[in-house]
């Protein structure tokens, strides 16, 4: 892995910022990616999203391509897990134990919680729009000043 990083740096290859983040993770991302060497390069597992990619050397540097999931296998696994879940709930009921709240396919109705959608008020939207308009105007004015400065120099 160290040789790979040195080769990329010394070879002058174009490396995407995301690839750099994989070789030098920050403290908050230290366990996000897991790399496993394979014959074609590396298999990368994203610990946050579960996405799997094959990373290999290309003419212009290293590139990672996502590995497609098998939808039929996923549907089969979901079906199996749903069956196991139902069997476990039956076992709990047989012993007189109520399943934990929210363990069903839907959250219990009538309870407020993290699922409530709180929309901003009209006043908050007006303030946000005024801020965005002001920021846009300042950006346009700055671009016009830069354009005038460039025209004066040429």
Written account of the structure:
By secondary structure, this protein is an alpha+beta fold. Among the domains are: 2-66, no CATH class; 122-154. The chain is built from 4 helices and 4 strands. Strands 1-2-3-4 form a 4-stranded antiparallel beta sheet, with no helix packed on it. A hairpin with a 5-residue loop joins β2 (41-46) and β3 (52-58). The radius of gyration is 26 Å and the shape is flat. Residues 1-21 and 106-112 have low confidence and may be disordered.
Helix content: 40-55%
What percent strand? 15-25%
Q: What's the N-to-C terminus distance?
A: 49 Å
Oligomer: single chain
- List how many beta strands DSSP finds: 4
Give the uncertain stretches in residue-range form. 1-21, 106-112
What does the radius of gyration come to?
A: 26 Å
The DSSP helix count reads 4
Order of strands, widest sheet? 1-2-3-4
Give the integer mean of the pLDDT values: 76
Tell me the structural class: alpha+beta
Outline type: flat
Please give the largest β-sheet: 4 strands, antiparallel
Keywords summarizing the entry:
154 residues, alpha+beta
Structure in a nutshell:
The chain has four helices and four strands; from the N terminus they run ααββββαα.
List the helices and strands and how they pair.
Layout: H1 2-11, H2 17-23, E1 33-38, E2 41-46, E3 52-58, E4 61-66, H3 71-94, H4 122-153
Antiparallel strand pairs: 1-2, 2-3, 3-4
């Amino acid at each position: 892995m160290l040789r790979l990083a040195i080769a990329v740096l010394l070879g002058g290859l174009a490396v995407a910022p995301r690839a750099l983040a994989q070789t030098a993770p920050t403290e908050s991302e230290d366990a996000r990616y897991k790399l496993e060497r394979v014959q074609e390069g590396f298999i990368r597992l994203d610990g946050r999203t579960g996405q799997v990619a094959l990373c290999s050397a290309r003419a212009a540097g290293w590139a990672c391509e996502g590995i497609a999931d098998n939808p039929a296998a996923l549907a089969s696994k979901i079906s199996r897990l749903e069956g196991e879940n139902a069997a476990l709930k039956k076992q709990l009921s047989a012993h007189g134990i109520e399943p934990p709240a929210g363990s069903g396919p839907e959250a219990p109705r009538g309870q407020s919680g993290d699922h409530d959608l709180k929309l901003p008020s009209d006043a908050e939207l007006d303030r946000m729009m005024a801020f965005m308009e002001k920021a846009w105007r300042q950006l346009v004015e700055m671009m016009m000043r830069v354009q005038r400065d460039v025209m004066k120099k040429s």
